[in-house]
Amino acid sequence: MDTATLSQHFETLEEHGYCIIENAIEQDLIEEVRETVARLETELNVQPRGNRAEGFATKRMYNLLGKDQAFWKLPIHGNVLPFPEYLLDDECILSGTTCMHIGPGEVHQGLHSDDGLVSVKRPRIPFMVTTVWAFTDFTDENGATRIVPGSHKFDHEPRKGEKIEHIAAEMKAGSVLIVNGGTWHCGGANTTKDQWRLGISVQYCQGYLRQQQNQYYSLSPDDVRAMPKRLAALCGFGLYKGIMGHVDGASPGRFLGASDVDEVAYAAMRTKNGVAES
């Protein structure tokens, strides 16, 4: 993505709290992920969880990085990673990876913000960034994500019974929706008879926050050692700013033999500008 296009998307994010990146995903990756999801849903006998938040006709899978290496390509994808790095910082970490396969008959999820548990007065800086990857077309009829433009600037979270206009973030397969963690959104209702809407959420958070999905227990040591350096760091196996997250003065990666994220605490305390200090 060229610098001018990236800047335009950043401006849209600042103003509306979301943007859509079209043609962000390569066709071979689309096909690989579709095949992987279909296989895992069968092998793991994935069924709807039967509640309003997770859905009554939606097949969900969490902690995707530990399920198949096909998903490793998503969090560090060059067309997407610049957005959480821009809204958070370049030492943000991965909060979670979730597959959301919305089936016919699914109901409207209910508006929420993904950083709603953060007890800091709104409006506020973004504490989370959610990226929603479209592996099928997202339409108003099949449950496209619903968005309240500009809601990241609101001074409150959604209130029960509050009526507010929201729009469908319609997009073609291969597109990615970028959402400020404070922006109100939700899964839409799937009113079709036979269409399944396949999306994957890759969420990032500030490096000093607790991750929504526990990366340490969902990934094997072999996985961590095999990961690209950037992905292992995103999962929290390095140190935030050269300090936070250490085990007896060293990064978690050191104890797993992951040399790429082997750090000693306080050896290089990184400032906001990424400058190492002794």
List keywords for this structure.
7 helices; three-stranded antiparallel sheet; alpha+beta; six-stranded antiparallel sheet; 278 residues; 11 strands; Jelly Rolls; 2 domains
Corresponding CATH superfamily of the largest domain? q2cbj1_9rhob like domain
CATH top level of the largest domain is: Mainly Beta
Secondary structure: number of strands:
11
**What profile does the largest beta sheet have?**
6 strands, antiparallel
User: Uncertain regions: pLDDT < 50 for 5+ in a row?
Assistant: none
Query: In angstroms, what is the radius of gyration?
Result: 19 Å
How many separate structural domains? Answer: 2
Portion in strands: 15-25%
Name of the CATH architecture of the largest domain:
Sandwich
Oligomer: single chain
Tell me the strand order in the biggest sheet.
Answer: 1-7-4-9-3-2
Please, how many helices?
7
Helix content: 10-25%
**Overall form:** globular
The average pLDDT is 94
How do the helices and strands follow one another from N- to C-terminus?
Answer: HEHEHEEEEEEEHHHHEE
Structural class: alpha+beta
Predict the CATH topology of the largest domain.
Jelly Rolls
